[in-house]
């Protein structure tokens, strides 16, 4: 079984400050990792994903996440946040056990990022 | 733009009165998912279709059923809604069911029970 822990339920920051949203996972097999963002009253949007290759992945709007296998973490960072980044962020994992694995996503509990002016 | 569309965005029904939520997609994806998301919680997978094959999660209540008449449409039927079924219901699609495929979500239907 796989599980995801997002260590902070809420993260308040001021505009232009850096932010880190923490995500740790547990799995007995290899995983693929995702970050989704959910704005109020909307569905989830894929922010970035780690499938293989470079452990540092970036999104088009300045977020980045680094896969750390030894620490089983996939923390999300942004060096300077904007008011428009205010949203809920979900970390998710799916197992890969070789061959064709069913891509069931397991989500963390979410972190609400609030950016203050 | 290719997308996942859920109708209605807001649905109010009475306790015990059947309700149907709909989802359509223009992505031509093989897999469609239904999630339940309660306030301040992670989305919880209810079931999914891979093409016409239905896959129910073990802990999904019998009260919840789904239909997929064609590739583009998928419906969530709640036979006898209880107060605990008030939630946001999210539809998602993916190209196939491999683990590396990201899911594409609609904006959800918020269901209220009177």
Verbal overview:
The complex is a heterodimer of chains A (117) and B (114). In chain A, 0% of the residues lie in helices and 55% in strands. Chain A has 117 residues and is mostly beta strands. In chain A, the strands form three sheets. In chain A, strands 2, 5, 6, 10, 11 and 12 form a six-stranded mixed beta sheet that branches. A four-stranded antiparallel beta sheet of chain A has the order 3-9-8-7, with no helix packed on it. In chain A, strands 1-4 form a two-stranded antiparallel sheet. In chain A, strand 7 (56-58) and strand 8 (64-68) form a beta hairpin. The mean pLDDT of chain A is 90. With 114 residues, chain B is mostly beta strands. In chain B, 0% of the residues lie in helices and 51% in strands. Chain B has strands at residues 4-7, 10-13, 19-25, 31-37, 44-50, 53-56, 64-67, 73-78, 87-94, 104-105, 109-113. In chain B, the strands form two sheets. In chain B, strands 2, 4, 5, 6, 9, 10 and 11 form a seven-stranded mixed beta sheet that branches. Chain B is globular and about 40 Å long. The N and C termini of chain B lie far apart (36 Å). The A-B interface holds A 9, 32, 34, 36, 41-46, 49, 51, 90, 94-96, 100-105, 107-110 and B 4, 6, 9, 40-43, 45, 90, 92, 94, 97-108, 110.
Short description:
With 117 residues, chain A is mainly beta. Chain A is built from no helices and 12 strands. Chain A is globular.
Please tag this protein with its features:
heterodimer; A: about 120 residues; mainly beta; six-stranded mixed sheet; four-stranded antiparallel sheet; B: mainly beta; about 50% strand
- Round the Cα radius of gyration of chain B to an integer and report it: 13 Å
Q: How big a fraction of the residues of chain A is strand?
A: over 45%
Name the chain pair whose interface involves the most residues: A-B, 26 and 24 residues
Mean pLDDT of chain B: 93
Structural class of chain A: mainly beta
Name the structural class of chain B.
Answer: mainly beta
Overall outline of chain B: globular
What is the beta-strand fraction of chain B? over 45%
Instruction: Tell me, briefly, the overall form of chain A.
Output: globular
């Amino acid at each position: 079984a796989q599980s995801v822990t997002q260590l902070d339920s809420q993260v308040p920051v001021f505009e232009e400050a850096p932010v880190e949203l923490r995500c740790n996972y547990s799995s007995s097999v290899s995983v693929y990792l995702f970050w989704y963002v959910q704005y109020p009253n909307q569905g989830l949007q894929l922010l970035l994903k780690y499938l293989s290759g470079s452990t540092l992945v970036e999104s088009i709007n300045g977020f980045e996440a680094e896969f750390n296998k030894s620490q089983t973490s996939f923390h999300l960072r942004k060096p300077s946040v904007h008011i428009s980044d205010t949203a809920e962020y979900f970390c998710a994992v799916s197992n890969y056990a070789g061959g064709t694995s069913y891509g069931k996503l397991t989500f963390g509990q979410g972190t609400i990022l609030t950016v203050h002016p | 733009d290719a997308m996942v569309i859920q109708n209605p965005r807001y649905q109010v029904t009475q306790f015990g009165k059947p309700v149907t939520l709909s989802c359509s997609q223009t992505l031509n994806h093989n897999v469609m998912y239904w999630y339940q998301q309660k306030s301040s919680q992670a989305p919880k997978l209810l079931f999914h279709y891979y093409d016409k094959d239905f896959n129910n999660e073990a802990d999904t209540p019998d009260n919840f059923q789904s239909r997929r008449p064609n590739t583009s449409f998928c419906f969530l039927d709640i036979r006898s809604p209880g107060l605990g079924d008030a939630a946001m219901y999210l539809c998602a699609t993916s190209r196939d069911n491999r683990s590396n495929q990201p899911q594409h979500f609609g904006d959800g239907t918020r269901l209220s029970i009177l």
